[in-house]
Amino acid sequence: MKIVVIGLGTAGFSSVLYAKKENLRSEITVVEKRNYDTYSPCGIPYAVEGKIGFEELKHTFPTGKMGVKKMNGFTAEKVDIEERKVMVTSEGKMDVLEYDSLILATGARSVLPPVSGIEGFAGRGVYTVRSIEDGEEIYRNAKKGRKVVVIGAGLIGLEMANAFTELGLRTDVVEIFDQVLPKSLDRDMAREVQRYLEGKGVEFHLGEKVIEVRGHGRPEEVVLENEVLETDLILVSAGVRPNTELAENAGIEVGKFGIKTDRKMRTSVDGVYAAGDCASNVRRITGEEINVQLASVAYRQGMVAGINAVGGDAEYSGDSDTSISLIGDLEIGFAGLTEAEARKKGYSVIVTRGKAETSEYLPEGEVKVKLIFERGGKLLGAQIAGRRVREKLAPLSLAIYAGLNYRDLLETDFGYSPLQAEYFDLINRLAENAMKKMRRSS
Prior knowledge:
It is a single chain. The chain is α/β, with parallel strands linked by helices and 442 residues long. The protein folds into three domains: 2-109 and 240-309, 3-Layer(bba) Sandwich (FAD/NAD(P)-binding domain); 112-236, FAD/NAD(P)-binding domain, CATH 3.50.50; 323-441, FAD/NAD(P)-binding domain (3-Layer(bba) Sandwich), CATH 3.50.50.60. The strands form nine sheets. The protein has a five-stranded parallel β-sheet. The protein has a five-stranded parallel β-sheet with strand order 11-18-12-13-14, with helices on one face. The chain has a five-stranded antiparallel β-sheet with strand order 25-26-29-28-27, sandwiched between helices.
């Protein structure tokens, strides 16, 4: 059985891995336009900051040991769905690959907002951060600059803002919404992140729209609705666009959120699968179609696509919107719906908040948790800021995934040790508070 995988990012990697696990006899060819294998794009802000080296972000995929043919430096130009062939090129050379199953893992690309003058400075002082090469170019320019403007206060924007402060740059962050992390956190939890970065010297311009970028040869001014910011460098983190052109040109159905897929990661064309940033996926809580740019999502989608491409039977059950981030010394995490989002979707909710030291005898800093419950009891969302966030977020993400309620969380034993954890965990206490609120309101 011949399998062709286009793209060796996280989704491409996992699809090859699981296709081989499912069917060792499958003949797999991977087409990757980069001259190196896979890499970790989420680590780029930390490489800019200097915590890790850029070369450490690259990972070699041992396809030889797996009996997989790897075609680095090749670009997939055309897919013929009738003949089941892919045309690829490299430095003027063309090759034709036949397939029984095709997996599209073409990823996504950063986009520039519709701002006057900004495109003229692309690559000359205006940058997005998607590839290692982007990160290296940003680092070289940041070392020569004094001031930077970050457009977009999502996770990458804030991680990059922190990196710039570590490099000694005066950092301004512009966000069209009136809070940071508008798609991830509620305003009360977002303020924790904003205050932390303000303490490091970052200046925020929230609820502001960028009107124009001006300069001579390189950007010098970012014009907002109410003020003008001087700058030497602009980092844009204001959204991405799935790479769907190859699929569209082949006649494969594409929608608002990428290449259309079902729960088996099948596209509209028989024998063609899609996974990762290029593909649409399902939000587990609501069942709505979305596109989530997370490596954890891409890995699971690639797993399903790889298994099914070689004749197996697997399903992707949907995403629980779980993510964690490290911004300086501050950890943040979230899963499921925000309170604002839940209310907008018509849920009647109960909200509980609390804080605790991460250890009774060895305090490592405060952790704050916010839980959003449906009035019937089911956990809809969780947001955390502080230290050792992952150990709190993991069980909450599982609870959202499994549809657990406040009583389940109240009765769960999270483990106790005087040097590590409380005997009645903060999650237990918040679930108890939710129960009391529900009883009072009934």
